[in-house]
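FW: tagging you since you asked about this chain on Friday. Here's the raw sequence from the shared folder, copied in full. Didn't touch anything.
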Amino acid sequence: MRAVLRGILVSGCVLASVVACDEDEGSSFIEAPEKDSTCLGLYGSPNERTGLDEAVCFPAIEGDEIWEPRAWDDDGFAELLSWTLDEPIEVIADNPYAETPDLEPNPNAVCAVMPTGENTYRLETFEGADPREAIDAALDAGGIVTHGGACGACSSLADLEVYARVPDQTQPVRDCGIQNLGAPIEDVDQCIQDAVGFSPPCARIWAYNTVNDGEVCRDICLNSVLILMEPYNNEDGSLNSCLQCDEDFSGGVFKTIAGRTRRNSGLASAICRPCETVWRIEHNYE
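HL: got it, structure written out here
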């Protein structure tokens, strides 16, 4: 039945690819987006806010090949938290939306965990002429690819643990933005740390993203979320108007500064995404 419904949704997936496609893999098996263009359906882990169910949105990529992400449990979360980053990531001091509003992530880069000792590591960005070349460079150097795109504020394994453990970060982050309208960025930042668990560097870029959305998407999001109470995804798989505004006006800067996203880490979230936009990463760090 699920396969039949996925077939019905193909036209919707094509539309979603147009309006919501972006780079959203790391060890024995790593693939960049669009490796398997035959995949159908949407990738995600729907909840009551999604607007779609597991008949059309599910945590697997199925086409000529079948890929399923790592199944996370308490042991997996503990494994990630057992690692120590040698060089802590700095918290950005200035608003990147004001300083560098045209930032876009490098599609031909990957971020790799480089073990430096027993459960210690550093992060390193590898680039290439295409994603596959970047992946191979990271593996040849002894790295474990943790996500597509260059390393950034959310690239640590501690933040990966949060991304994997909390599949719906949209609602708590949005709540922090609403509760702290007009407040200093530090207040929004601290609310996000408390509500979700991100590290300070990661929470800061989420906070700046939230503030930027409040400035450029406020009317759209008030109508979409508070008045219409739109689900994350429309019936055709595209994003609701608020999330699409975020993609259009905040996405490039956020993805560049944060580094890690759910899509480029291969993690299923409550927002369903076209399967061909998801990096396939195993996340084996043992």
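FW: Residues 119 and 175 are 35 Å apart (CA to CA).
HL: agreed, and The longest strand covers residues 109-117.
FW: great, closing this out.
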